[in-house]
Design brief:
- There is one protein chain.
- 48% of the residues lie in helices and 19% in strands.
- By secondary structure, it is α+β, with helices and mostly antiparallel strands.
- Strands 1, 2, 3, 4, 5, 6, 7, 8, 9, 10 and 11 form an eleven-stranded mixed beta sheet that branches. It has a two-stranded antiparallel sheet with strand order 12-13.
- A hairpin with a 2-residue loop joins β3 and β4.
- α2 runs antiparallel to α9 and α7 crosses α8.
Length: 407
């Protein structure tokens, strides 16, 4: 390989070289961004469940609703679409073979004189998954230890001046504020304004043993669909949430990308390399005149082929590196994008308090995929080599005398 000739080609044909590099960079950037976004989107959808250590969240949409009459501070009731589970249903869920950990909670609404708040009852004896995870997220004070204590989400507490040590009347009971909770980012799926022991929440609605949210951790995540089917047999009206259901609620495009991410990535990679090959082959095809002159001054086909392969590989690698760099920048900007998904069964009943609707909001993660970068670079090198070898058939047909007559 003659480095001086390679340098001269780049300098003398800057427009063509830069155009080829730009096309390669764009093709590589599209491939990398598409794959990175797919992985990032899926990982971000998994984050809320990973943060609380669960695989599935089960709620019940239809059945008998438990009510109590208004008490002196207002009324406490079960959300309209978070129905209480029957004891036999809970027992059946526990016996599903793939379930490793089981936890439950009771979500209730406190509605008093136009004000609204959500209260989550936690079972202190459950594993630290699901809503029970909030026991680890106390930032001030402690978590309730008995049924006359309550902890508030710290921002809700600050807005309403709910200080530790104060007493508050709720659901006909006088409770002492003992702590403030900070919900971990990406864990709004278990967010509430207040947290009490599950017995306290059950007393609010005068329903001992009541539970309306179940959290399951599976032994094998590949069995998620199987477990969903088992749950549907036990509770036909169950609303089962998982990372896949988050993606489905985000839109059909997200669902398609999630299900066919590997296939889409493979097609995009093949398309990109085909485009790169066409561009490089066309570029080398324009070098027929130069090749004829090189043959006229004594260059062999092997020497010319090596020179063309070197030029092709250099442009491919440079374009690929630039494409990866721009893809990384685009990936960094996408880390500011948030996924906003409403959570079934937790919306307040009045339009006047719709701003308190609980939603899962999580940002896309900035992900680097070094294995993809290595694959793309290797692919670009092989594409450059392939271009040079494919040109060999044409090189053998070029006659120096014909090229010299055209000068």
């Amino acid at each position: 390989m003659d480095l001086s000739l390679l340098k001269a080609e780049i300098l003398q044909n800057r427009s063509r070289v830069f155009f080829n590099i730009a096309i390669i960079a764009i093709a590589v950037m599209v491939v990398v961004v598409l794959r990175t976004m797919t992985v990032s989107y899926k990982k971000s959808a998994d984050k809320p469940f990973q943060n609380i250590g669960v695989s599935l969240i089960v709620q019940k949409n239809r059945g008998k609703t438990v009510n109590i009459k208004s008490v002196e501070t207002g009324g406490v009731r079960v959300p309209f679409s978070n129905i209480i589970f029957e004891s036999k249903e809970l027992k059946a869920l526990r016996t599903i073979s793939e379930v490793r950990d089981f936890s439950s909670s009771l979500l209730v609404w406190n509605m008093t004189k136009g004000k609204f708040s959500t209260i989550m009852g936690i079972n202190p004896h459950d594993p630290l998954i699901g809503a029970a995870k909030t026991k680890d997220w106390i930032v001030r004070g402690r978590f309730p230890k008995n049924k006359n204590e309550i902890a508030f989400e710290k921002h809700f507490a600050k807005f309403n001046s709910l200080k530790i040590g104060n007493m508050i009347s709720m659901g006909g009971a006088l409770l002492e504020i003992v702590g403030h909770v900070q919900i971990k980012e990406g864990s709004q799926v278990i967010a509430a304004n207040a947290y009490v022991l599950i017995e306290t929440a059950q007393n609010f609605i005068q329903s001992p043993g009541a539970v309306n949210i179940v959290y399951l951790t599976l032994n094998d995540m590949s069995k998620v669909d199987y477990v969903k089917k088992q749950i549907a047999k036990i509770i036909p009206s169950a609303k089962i949430s998982s990372s896949d259901s988050f993606l489905e609620s985000a839109g059909s495009l997200a669902t398609i990308v999630n299900k066919f991410s590997v296939l889409i990535s493979m097609i995009s990679i093949i398309t990109a390399f085909f485009l790169i090959f066409k561009v490089m082959f066309a570029s080398l095809n324009e070098r027929t005149h130069d090749i004829g002159i090189l043959k006229a001054i004594g260059w062999t086909n092997k020497e010319i082929r090596n020179e063309l392969v070197a030029e092709s590989v250099v442009m491919n690698v440079v374009g690929t590196v630039i494409g990866i760099m721009f893809a990384t920048i685009v990936g960094w900007f996408t880390s500011f994008i948030s996924i906003d998904v409403s959570l079934s069964g937790q919306s307040p009943p009045s339009s006047a308090i719709q701003h308190l609707t609980l939603r899962e909001n999580t940002t896309l993660d900035f992900i680097l995929l070094p294995e993809l970068y290595i694959l793309v670079i290797i692919g670009s090198v092989l594409t450059g080599i392939a271009c040079g070898y494919f040109m060999m058939g044409k090189l053998l047909k070029i006659r120096p005398s014909e090229v010299l007559r055209e000068i």
